[in-house]
Design a protein that fits this description.
By secondary structure, the chain is mainly α. The chain has seven helices and two strands.
Length: about 160
Amino acid sequence: MEAIDLYEMNRTPRGTNLNWIPRAKYLEPPKRRTHKHEYNSDITDYQKASLRLNICEIPSEAPYEKFNRLLNQWQEESIVMSSITEMVMLPSYQAIIGMGPAVVRLILNELKHDPDYFFWALEAITGDNPVMPEDEGNLDRMTNAWIKWGQENGII
């Protein structure tokens, strides 16, 4: 059985028309492959393969250690920045926010000892903002407002 579905152009000598001559694509019909044939080799190869486990080990880091690592990283990255917006958009700061409510107590304790711009993180995590509008921009007053909030809510 010939399949005549592929045509090739055969040029004739100069000055004559071009002729299309049908050429057979296959000399014999292709053998049909069954799904069984396709998958049996894969299953056999899989069964012969050695058993291998890929285990992704995630180091277990305590929240306190992770917070301190991210805090140090953020302070190093933001030391030359003057824009608070740029400072809080750093990946290390965002990772602190990503730690969630477990880090609120750590942030408030850090504010007690070394006031820094963690107000954005505290507001993002808690959904609260105890800072009065007239105190915004004043680091000491903002720090005191958050520490008072932590004491009132039994966090510190």
